[in-house]
């Protein structure tokens, strides 16, 4: 199948307006004849479900959490970008668009990013009207800050809990539609398959996580807003439940998976403290404004520190290596996320890591405290320092903080066209679960923007275009396609429960995470990726022979839930490796050691790789087919990044 | 560290359930409380026993999923969420009793997992501003004094974990409900529907079977986000004001 | 249901009734205490007996007293109802609880304290109020007018150590009841403001300690006077 991105004709600034006029509308009286399924209730899912309900569609919304309010959008800290230009500092829709394309290292689709920037201003209005308590100035107007090295202050925020406040806003809109009877909410219900009838997405099969009941749900269109797949790495800043199962099973039914190797690694996370670690905690990258990153110059000193024989505060200045300041004198500690992350990894690979595990570098505030005083630092970062102390038991005012990079966000996801429809008719993908807006690297405070843009302001229009062409007839869940999908889901579950091997699901997940982190993490090369592919295949084979899933299907069964998800991660991981192997350039979060400048920086190959890779599933045995969507840049000039 | 755990095990909502004792020998004080449960569950799974079901998700103290009643207190000895509680808060050799939230409105589903959908129904009954998507005036059309915005924010930080209900001797949900009512009552956007909101939310709260507030203050003392009792006072004011002034006969 | 019954039967409304009746009873305590001071006049009970007659014959006070009875009944009946329905909100309890780390003892035991005070009230009413109204109380004449000699009844009662002991224990219960109840009533009325909270709490704690203490001191003094 040829990929058709359906980008409207015309100048970039007019594409969306024209498109909105050209697409078909569903008569208000007819909207109630259409059913829409929304899977996931984060920013994208909740806002989409609420908006559909307001328009008059019948919506069924699903989440695996016990309440839609707990989706992982809630954990976003920093803020949400919008081209409001409230600060009169030269921001504009075009500048936000330009920054986003450039920040994504020119691997995103211009038209989608421009639309995102365009609707960003409406998002803030919408959220304020819902009662989201954004930070304000004393004059009562909204406050902004500059975020992630942006040249303008366009980030709206609600302390360090912007994601929470936005999600609660979307959740309240969703709750209102639940009360109105337009949205039926299914919590603790996980999608396990997509159902296709006559080549169109017409429903899903779910498992009720409390009773284990396998249920079919039919609709005229299916919208996936199921988040990213960072948990492939086992350790990430994602929630424990975040998974790729819905997206992956849609992929297996025909939805192409785009740019799977594009993952973002955040440089300032609290390091792993031991094998028991289940999750990584992000510390706002604003810390790098005042903290200085260093490791000991000598491996022998690092060893002493690791053994606890030497305290970092006792190591004299001349024995420390402030490597970011040394290597990037112009940007110093404020180099972009991927550069900071890679350098930390390199230092630890050289044996200079400082925590017990050797996987950490210092972020030192001693100079800042000396310069500005403790109270000034406390005012800026007090809550972060408290959080650090709570988790690690160390006082960052007295001893340098330890940080290490962690998987944070996945730019890749289901391939979608301009209407956010996947390659499956009637199947849409929103938010982090699609690939569309962030290219090879996402800018800070843009994830929340994309989730809400997709849910509030894009999909409510574009889904109408599809539904207007659909007959009203409903497909019964007794249809053969549903019965078949149910049978497939059941047999997979039965298989998992019947293996009764010797290893736990977590054992496999950890092993997969280790492979992915080692070979498909911050720095990738051909040899490693090939090795990873073999190891993942072996691990997957072993999983299906030796995993031990306790209990039965007819109960709340946490082993089974995890097993279902890890089974999919084991397949997705291989596709990520394939994608990373094919893309032998470096771009954004994807660093191929073979493609670097003489100074060791990432080097894009625009003539060869200026495309979106979209992978088609061909069954368990056959390799996936690569389809390319060529990226055309008419409004942004391609440049190579340099931070020297 | 060596830890003796006494954990509530209950197969399903119909099972009677009981405390079961587990010994853990090799616990690092850097583990979070939930990571200790991961270790225990892994050991149980290796022995072919059913792991302990418990709610958790973000593990950074914001989603509100985790919900353990630890040694007589919701979320344990510190005023934080269970996921942000670390084993260094305990001593080597300690015995720790872990129970599910207990309330008529929060029935136990399995082991430590309870059904908190009552909270969702309370929010559905009015915890929103009735605006549709789109057609909204500019966000800066309504200036809001910083102090009011901050106060609304303080109320809005509620994570809906239910520790207030678990802590309250009456299993009252007053702190939860008051936090949402306060947030929206303070902001001009929310004032429009203020009266019907508070009437409906209180009615739903009562219908769910939560107890009444006797002002012990346990909810606020145990709230991981430190939601203040002032919100309950505001709920009372809003409610009686609404009842006296609203059009409902 | 009308909006009013709907409001007062809600969980908030029932608390409001407890608070309003509680505050009224607090005012009554002050009036009662002022009356009790008449016992300490060293005039053989004249001031007290005149006061007692005034309190039972003045029409305005008589009317108020009916309101007071109603208040007591509402406070007690609603209180019992509240405790019972609150118990129902947690049908299965915890094996371990550490309430002392998050709340005061008195706030968690208002029902128990109320019960003690209720038992005291029954004894108290039987001893004096019933006697005054329907009992065979001796009379005494001042300036040619006849008065019920309630003073003698009181003095006789307070010469018994065990009655004094019951009174003292009950006043301690009242102390704890007020320690929580006073400021709690303000909270229920929605009066909670960081600026005034210290004042409300301060006055509440002061009231909770001083008023019951003064109530308790009178029988003790009278007991020592009798021996």
UniProtKB/TrEMBL annotation, chain A:
Gene Ontology cellular component annotations, sorted alphabetically: plasma membrane
GO annotation, biological process: anaerobic respiration
Keyword tags: Cell membrane, Electron transport, FAD, Flavoprotein, Membrane, Oxidoreductase, Transport
EC number in record: 1.3.5.1
Molecular functions (GO terms): electron transfer activity; flavin adenine dinucleotide binding; succinate dehydrogenase (quinone) activity
Protein name in UniProt: succinate dehydrogenase
Mode of membrane association: Peripheral membrane protein
Span of domain FAD-dependent oxidoreductase 2 FAD-binding: 35-448
Intracellular or extracellular location(s): Cell membrane
Pfam families hit by this protein: FAD_binding_2, Succ_DH_flav_C
Keyword DNA-binding part of the UniProt annotation: no
Cofactor(s) needed by this chain: FAD
TrEMBL record, chain B:
Superkingdom per UniProt: Bacteria
PROSITE patterns noted in UniProt: 2FE2S_FER_1 (PS00197), 4FE4S_FER_2 (PS51379)
InterPro entries given in the database record: 2Fe-2S_ferredoxin-like_sf, 2Fe2S_fd_BS, 4Fe4S_Fe-S-bd, Beta-grasp_dom_sf, Helical_ferredxn, SDH/FRD_Iron-Sulfur, Succ_DH/fum_Rdtase_Fe-S, Succ_DH/fum_Rdtase_N
Cofactor: [3Fe-4S] cluster; [4Fe-4S] cluster; [2Fe-2S] cluster
Keyword RNA-binding annotated: no
UniProt keyword annotations, A-Z: 2Fe-2S, 4Fe-4S, Iron, Iron-sulfur, Metal-binding, Oxidoreductase
Keyword Repressor listed: no
Domain 4Fe-4S ferredoxin-type: from-to ranges: 149-179
GO biological process: respiratory electron transport chain; tricarboxylic acid cycle
GO terms of molecular function: 2 iron, 2 sulfur cluster binding; 4 iron, 4 sulfur cluster binding; electron transfer activity; metal ion binding; oxidoreductase activity
Family under the similarity heading: Belongs to the succinate dehydrogenase/fumarate reductase iron-sulfur protein family.
Protein name per UniProt: Succinate dehydrogenase/fumarate reductase iron-sulfur subunit
Organism this protein belongs to: Fulvivirga sediminis
From TrEMBL, chain C:
Protein keywords: Membrane, Transmembrane, Transmembrane helix
Example of a GO cellular component annotation carried by this entry: membrane
Highest taxon, organism lineage: Bacteria
Record's keyword annotation contains Membrane: yes
InterPro entries cross-referenced by the UniProt entry: Cytochrome_b-558 (IPR011138), SQR/QFR_C/D (IPR034804)
Residue spans crossing the bilayer: 16-35, 66-84, 105-125, 161-182, 203-224
Official protein name in the record: Succinate dehydrogenase cytochrome b subunit
Species name: Fulvivirga sediminis
């Amino acid at each position: 199948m040829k990929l058709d991105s359906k980008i409207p004709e015309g100048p970039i600034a007019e594409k969306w307006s024209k498109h909105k006029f050209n697409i078909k509308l569903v008569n208000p009286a007819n909207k109630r004849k259409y059913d829409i399924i929304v899977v996931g209730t984060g920013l994208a899912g909740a806002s989409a479900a609420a908006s559909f309900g307001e328009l008059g569609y019948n919506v069924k919304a699903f989440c695996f959490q016990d309440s839609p309010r707990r989706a992982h959008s809630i954990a976003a800290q920093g803020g949400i970008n919008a081209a409001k230009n409230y600060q009169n500092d030269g921001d504009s829709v075009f500048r936000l668009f330009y920054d986003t394309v450039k920040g994504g290292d020119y691997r995103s689709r211009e038209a989608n990013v421009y639309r995102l920037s365009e609707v960003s201003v409406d998002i803030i209005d919408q959220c304020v009207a819902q009662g989201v308590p954004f930070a304000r100035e004393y004059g009562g107007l909204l406050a902004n800050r500059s975020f992630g090295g942006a040249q303008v202050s366009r980030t709206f925020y609600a302390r360090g809990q912007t994601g929470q406040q936005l999600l609660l806003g979307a959740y309240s809109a969703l709750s209102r539609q639940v009360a109105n009877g337009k949205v039926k909410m299914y919590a603790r219900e996980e999608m396990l398959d997509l159902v296709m009838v006559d080549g169109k997405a017409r429903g899903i099969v779910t498992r009720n996580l409390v009773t284990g009941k396998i249920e079919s749900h039919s609709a005229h269109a299916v919208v996936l807003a199921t988040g990213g797949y960072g948990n492939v790495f086992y350790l990430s800043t994602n929630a424990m439940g975040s998974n790729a199962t819905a997206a992956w099973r849609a992929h297996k039914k025909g939805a192409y998976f785009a740019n799977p190797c594009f993952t973002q690694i955040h440089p300032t996370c609290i390091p792993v403290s031991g094998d028991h670690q289940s999750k990584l905690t992000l510390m706002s990258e604003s810390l790098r404004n005042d903290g200085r990153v260093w490791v000991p110059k000598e491996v022998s000193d690092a060893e002493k520190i690791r053994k606890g024989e030497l305290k970092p505060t006792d190591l004299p200045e001349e024995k420390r290596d402030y490597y970011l300041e040394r290597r990037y004198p112009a940007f110093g500690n404020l180099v972009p996320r991927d550069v900071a992350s890679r350098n930390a990894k390199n230092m630890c690979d050289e044996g200079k890591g400082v925590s017990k595990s050797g996987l950490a570098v210092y972020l030192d505030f001693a100079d800042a405290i000396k310069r500005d005083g403790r109270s000034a630092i406390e005012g800026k970062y007090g809550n972060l320092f408290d959080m650090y102390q709570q988790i690690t038991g160390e006082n960052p005012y007295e001893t340098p903080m330890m940080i290490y990079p962690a998987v944070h966000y996945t730019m890749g996801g289901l391939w979608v066209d301009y209407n956010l429809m996947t390659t499956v008719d009637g199947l849409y993908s929103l938010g982090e679960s699609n690939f569309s807006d962030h290219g090879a690297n996402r800018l800070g405070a843009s994830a929340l923007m994309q989730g809400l843009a997709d849910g509030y302001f894009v999909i409510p229009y574009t889904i109408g275009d599809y539904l207007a062409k659909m007959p009203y007839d409903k497909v019964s869940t007794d249809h053969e396609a549903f019965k078949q999908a149910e049978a497939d889901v059941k047999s997979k579950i039965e298989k998992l429960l019947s293996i009764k091997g010797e290893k736990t699901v977590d054992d496999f997940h950890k092993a997969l995470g280790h492979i992915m982190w080692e070979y498909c993490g911050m720095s990738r090369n051909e040899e490693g990726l090939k090795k990873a592919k073999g190891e993942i295949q072996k691990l997957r084979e072993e999983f299906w022979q030796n995993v031990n899933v306790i209990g039965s299907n007819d109960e709340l069964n946490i082993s089974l839930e995890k097993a279902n998800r890890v089974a999919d991660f084991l397949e997705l991981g291989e596709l990520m490796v394939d994608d990373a192997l094919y893309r032998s350039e470096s771009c954004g979060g994807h660093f191929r050691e073979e493609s670097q400048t003489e100074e060791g920086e990432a080097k894009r190959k625009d003539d060869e790789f200026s495309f979106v890779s979209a992978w088609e599933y061909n069954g368990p045995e056959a390799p996936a087919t690569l389809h390319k969507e060529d990226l055309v840049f008419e409004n942004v000039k391609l440049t190579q990044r340099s931070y020297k | 560290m060596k830890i003796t755990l006494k954990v509530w095990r209950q197969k399903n909502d119909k099972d009677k359930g009981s405390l079961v004792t587990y010994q853990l020998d090799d616990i690092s004080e850097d583990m979070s409380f939930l990571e200790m449960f991961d270790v225990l569950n892994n050991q149980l799974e290796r022995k072919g026993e059913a792991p302990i079901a418990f709610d958790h998700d973000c593990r950074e103290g914001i989603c509100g999923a985790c919900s353990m009643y630890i040694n007589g207190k919701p979320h344990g000895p510190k005023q934080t969420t269970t996921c942000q509680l670390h084993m260094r808060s305990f001593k080597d050799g300690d015995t720790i009793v872990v129970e599910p939230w207990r309330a008529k409105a929060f029935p136990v589903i399995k082991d430590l997992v309870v059904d908190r959908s009552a909270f969702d129904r309370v929010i559905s009954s009015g915890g929103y501003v009735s605006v549709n998507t789109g057609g909204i005036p500019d966000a800066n059309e309504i200036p809001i004094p910083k102090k009011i915005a901050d106060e609304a924010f303080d109320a809005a930080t509620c994570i809906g974990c239910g520790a207030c209900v678990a802590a309250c001797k009456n299993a009252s949900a007053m702190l939860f409900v008051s936090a949402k009512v306060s947030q929206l009552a303070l902001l001009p956007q929310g004032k429009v529907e203020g009266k019907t909101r508070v009437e409906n939310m209180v009615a739903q709260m009562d219908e769910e079977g939560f107890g009444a507030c006797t002002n012990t203050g346990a909810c606020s003392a145990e709230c991981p986000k430190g939601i203040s009792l002032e919100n309950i006072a505001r709920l009372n004011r809003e409610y009686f004001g609404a009842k006296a002034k609203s059009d409902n006969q | 249901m009308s909006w009013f019954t709907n409001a007062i039967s809600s969980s908030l409304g029932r608390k409001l009734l407890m608070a309003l009746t509680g505050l009224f009873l607090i005012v009554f305590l002050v009036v009662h205490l002022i009356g009790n001071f008449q016992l300490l006049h060293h005039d053989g009970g004249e001031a007290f007996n005149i006061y007692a007659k005034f309190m039972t014959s003045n029409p305005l006070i008589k009317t108020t007293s009916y309101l007071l009875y109603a208040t007591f009944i509402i406070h007690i009946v609603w209180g019992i109802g509240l405790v019972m329905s609150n118990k129902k909100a947690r049908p299965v309890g915890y094996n371990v609880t550490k309430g002392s780390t998050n709340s005061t003892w008195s706030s968690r035991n208002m029902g128990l304290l109320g019960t003690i005070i209720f038992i005291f009230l029954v004894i108290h009413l039987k001893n004096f109020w019933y006697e005054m109204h329907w009992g065979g109380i001796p009379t005494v004449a001042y300036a040619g007018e006849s008065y019920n000699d309630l003073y003698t009844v009181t003095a006789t009662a307070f010469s018994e150590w065990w009655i004094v002991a019951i009174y003292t224990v009950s006043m301690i219960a009242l102390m704890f009841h007020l320690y929580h109840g006073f400021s709690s009533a303000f909270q229920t009325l929605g009066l909670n403001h960081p600026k005034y909270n210290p004042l409300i709490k301060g006055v509440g704690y002061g009231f909770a300690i001083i008023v019951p203490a003064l109530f308790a001191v009178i029988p003790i003094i009278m007991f020592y006077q009798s021996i």
